[in-house]
Design brief:
The protein has 10 helices and 14 strands. The strands form 2 sheets. Strands 8-9-10-7-11-12-13-14 form an 8-stranded mixed β-sheet, with helices on one face. Strands 3-2-1-4-5-6 form a 6-stranded parallel β-sheet, sandwiched between helices. Strand 1, helix 1 and strand 2 form a beta-alpha-beta unit. The N and C termini lie far apart (about 45 Å). Helix 4 runs parallel beside helix 5 and helix 5 runs antiparallel to helix 10. About 35% of the residues lie in helices and about 25% in strands. With about 325 residues, the chain is an alpha/beta fold.
Length: about 325
């Protein structure tokens, strides 16, 4: 039986996710409905992607009995409200990153998933790329010796993009792109809680961070450095250095298609899209979709590769980094 997807939100990332699903066997993945706040947008999306049902409200999608899992592709300021709608309706959910606006919201989503006994995962697509799984294999087998340093950077000039710079839209470098660097550090250090979190950066007039550097120290003198910027084009690479070797992840580190392990490069090519994409390497969204399918087939309520505790720790670190730099969203004020 195919995993039957409902798509919530008819924006750019939902488009790319739908294109990515088409690169997987049709017998395994099928989009059966799409919902948007405006029916016409849902209908246009459905026509483009050959989806049988289009809804003009999220509530209608939540009530559709023919859906196995909902992909939540709305803005992260809406993740809590819309996520709770689906979880309380007994729907399994794959929720785009960042999971929500702060730890309090993340806890509400996790609590609701557990109360309603449904599957929930943050759509941290990076973790499911073949290159990322190979990184984890190399580290788990000790091929680099003890990892001492991890560094990741993500900087793209996007000051003209409202969702990158406006506080009401959840803007800021850390929440929008720095999240990839922090999750990378946590992946490398196997979900361990850092001993210290130090953040420095500066804010735009809108009150969100233009750039931030987050330094995490871990037990046994290990360190991770995460750099993000919405004003500067960075090399967008990552590196892991151990006592016996190193791994370099060339651009783009958040959707990796190559690794350089001790100087030797290995490529992990992606399938070609059937429609133009909005974001780089988006057919790689297929890997998180397949992870969801495998979890559902096994009756799991979360993924061990991007667990709910992983998502909770990731947001805790980002909350503290934002606190140190002075980034406060309306959702933080209770």
């Amino acid at each position: 039986m195919a995993t039957r997807w409902g798509i919530c939100g008819a924006g750019k990332i939902s488009h790319d996710f739908s294109v990515a699903l088409k690169t997987l066997p049709a017998g395994n993945h099928k989009i059966v409905a799409v919902a948007a706040r405006i029916l016409q947008n849902a209908e246009e999306f459905a026509k483009k992607h050959n989806i049988p049902k289009a809804y003009g409200s999220y509530e209608e999608l939540a009530k559709d009995p023919e859906i196995d899992v909902v992909y939540l592709g709305v803005l992260h300021t809406q993740h809590l409200r819309v996520g709770l709608l689906f979880l309380r309706a007994g729907r399994n959910v794959l929720c785009e990153k960042p999971f929500a606006m702060n730890s309090r919201e993340v806890k509400q989503l996790i609590d609701s998933a557990r109360e309603n006994n449904v599957f929930l995962m943050e759509a941290m697509w990076t973790r499911f790329f073949p290159a990322s799984r190979e990184i984890s294999r190399i580290l788990s087998q000790g091929e680099l010796g003890e990892v001492k340093v991890a560094r990741a950077e993500f900087g793209v000039p996007s000051m003209h993009v409202p969702r990158s710079v406006e506080k009401e839209l959840g803007g800021g470098a850390l929440m929008n792109i720095g999240v990839y660097c922090v999750q990378f550090a946590l992946m490398v250090f196997d979900g361990e809680r850092p001993e210290t979190i130090q953040a420095s950066g500066f804010c735009l007039d809108s009150g969100v961070d233009e750039a931030m550097v987050v330094t995490l120290t871990f037990s046994r003198n290990r360190i991770a450095v995460c750099i993000c910027s919405v004003a500067a084009q960075l090399p967008n690479e990552a590196v892991i250095v151990g006592t016996k070797g190193s791994i370099k992840i060339p651009a783009n580190m958040w959707c990796p298609t190559a690794l350089v392990v001790n100087g030797k490069e290995e490529e992990y090519p992606l399938p070609q899209p059937s429609l133009p994409l909005n974001f780089v390497n988006s057919t790689g969204l297929r890997y998180e979709a397949e992870e969801v399918r495998q979890c559902l087939l096994k009756g799991l309520k979360e993924s061990s590769r991007m667990s709910l505790s992983d998502s909770a720790l990731l947001m805790e670190i980002m909350d503290e980094a934002r606190r140190q730099v002075g980034v406060l969203y309306s959702q933080d004020i209770q």
